[in-house]
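P.,

For your records, the input lines for the assembly:
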Amino acid sequence: MKTVPELRDMSRRDNQPLTHLENADLMPLAIEDREWKTLSAEARERYAGALDDTCALNLPQPKSMEEEQALVGKFLSGLDKLFTRENNWTFLQPLVLTMEHCAKCQTCAESCHIFEASGRNEIYRPTFRSEIVRRLYFQHVKHGGLYSAWVHGTIELNWPLVARLAELAYRCNLCRRCAQTCPIGADNGLVAHELRKLFSQEMGIAPKEIHDNGSMLQLRVGSSTGMNAAAVRDNIDFIDEDISDKTGVPIKTPWDVEGADILLIHNAGEIMAWPENPGAFATVLNAAGISWTLSSELAGYDSINYGLWYDDAQFARVAIKHAEAARKLKVKKIVLGECGHAHKALAVIADRILVGDLRIPRESYLTMLREIVMSGRIEFDPARNDFPVTLHDPCNMVRLMGVVEPQREILRKLCPRFREMEPHGVDNYCCGGGSGFAIMSGHNFPDWRFHVTGRKKLQQVLTAFADCLEPETPKYLCAPCSNCKGQFRDMLSYYGLWEKNRILYGGLIELVVNAMTAVKPGFIDWEWR
Amino acid sequence: MTTLIYLVLYAGGIVFLAGAIVRAIGYARQPIHLRWEIYPVPQGHGGELKVMIPEILFLKGLWEFNRSLWCLSYPFHGGLYLVIAGGALAALNLTSLAGAVGVAGLALVLAGSLGLLIRRLTTRTLRIYTAGGDILNLVWFAATAVLLLAGWVTLPPGTPGPIAILRGALSFDNGVAVSPLLAAGFISGAALIAYIPMTHMSHFVAKYFTYHAVRWDERAAGCVASRMAEYLTYRPTWSAPHIEANGERSWAEIATSAPKGGGK
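Structure tokens returned:
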């Protein structure tokens, strides 16, 4: 029988993982499972924070006890700062409420897709992480004495605990489904978010895909893809040509048009990985006669904002760059393309820090697209979309932003064989790629994410298409978010669901263009990419 | 003795109120956070009440998401509501009804707290997150209910019961004789009431903030502009190099400057 990890195990000095998952432990899947790639012995030896079967951060082992103590000291100083208004006014109130009022009823665990998919493994329980932080809060921030220690419990603070906590902060998708079901309103997703901030903002610890190759690169070059403005314009020119040929409808993407009604900001990953998406936007906006533009300002052409997941300063810097691009062009509003976290970052979370002339209206493309589709300005033939379609709800757009119906109205109008996943809307499950996981690819992290974080969603997709899983019927998984698409691309490919079951993934606007009577039939070409 | 019990009851009530107010003020004075809502967000006070009333009266969230725990938690909370209702009825001089409601409430509190305690101690996934305080809280409730119920059941004929004592406390009639068991029950109850605001059990205060001020706070930036302007002048001291916070640069200065270097 396997040992169930307990809180105190997090302080173990043996640098051995607290748990190991086998396929047999996991939530059953309706398809044949695959063997995991294991974390190499060298990585186990080399990196601190041994927690489970994978490694997200590559934390170097301290070389001496003095170094260990210095790191623990830095962690403590960061923990203190998390609870001061000067350092953390951004989330202090919800964090303190969560620290002080969890009833430990474990209601949240039942809603967590990671906990469920892992076969209810204790370290993935939402309160496992939070309870450690809570004990540290009462011990070291509130300076509780012996009585407080007895009332709240204690945990040994040492380097192994700090390192494991850093890793554990990256075993949560930040989908906040747990917070949605907490009767008290405590938010364990927020605890993971705040822990990530502590590690990044105080200790400079963050996954390199999110920080070095993510927000830092974006702030230096303009995009986390590494594309500068000239490269993006070249790519868009190529996309314009390609999509014009494909659709028979000439398009020319407008750049830096001062006074345009709309500044459209794509996730620049679309331009590289799914060029048909920005091409489809241009086709629809031109056909609808919208006054729009892209921006070639630094970060003005890439809506991603990875700071949302781990660092308030990086988050604010990128959000301000986006707003500055819009201000410079004097547009009426910013419209966010198919990227969930960019939606929440710029439209919701940044709302209160965009002050003065940076307070420019921001809108989801979903509401704009619904208006276009329903207005009658474009003629559609829904028969062109006569294949099974299901919709994945990106957490950031639905539960965390409240945009639920526009995408459904479009699908009901244009896709005669649309079917919902269950549950859906604000009760959806994360794709498993949320909070940066979709772009984190070190060691065997992708294997962990396919087997554990994406498992529940994969099961939902298979259930939604249960009546037509045969390969003769092509099926479309509509995922109107770049990160979700990245996760689906990798996960469907990993399980061979395109080859075996003809499940294709893609965005929403591609379905809209596919149904436009003015374009050549077959915009969706049923090829894997 | 009677005077002492009354004083303890008054003190318990005063500490409870003061503790709850201090806690509420503490939360209310914290900075307005960045928007962090969870949808659906009910619209207007009417919309919020439509969610909060079933949540307060019936623990609707627990019913929906953790039914087996609700079966224990609801009797406990429902019992507390009945005890409060019994006290209110006593104040209105509806003594018979107050007695019946109070006894039912205490019985439910006892059953609920024992049920929650047993479940917490026998369910591994609850037990490993349980600290001394969690056990203390439930034992204290159960013990108080036992003392009050036992005091009531063993009351010699003609002796003032809990309702008469409560009414005596309200009118400061210290001629009411209090039996030792009821005295212990009232003292325990008063101390427990005073203790609640110091603990996570003050979630009746916290829930206003977690729901109204976090989950449902979608106030537009314009409504909080002056507070935001103040926060943007704060001088953080985060020490990671890319933040470039030295305790002198303001939040606004940091947010409007690009970090040096970085990016592979």
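Two observations worth noting. Residues 221 and 227 of chain A are 7 Å apart (CA to CA). The first helix of chain A runs from residue 41 to 46.

Regards
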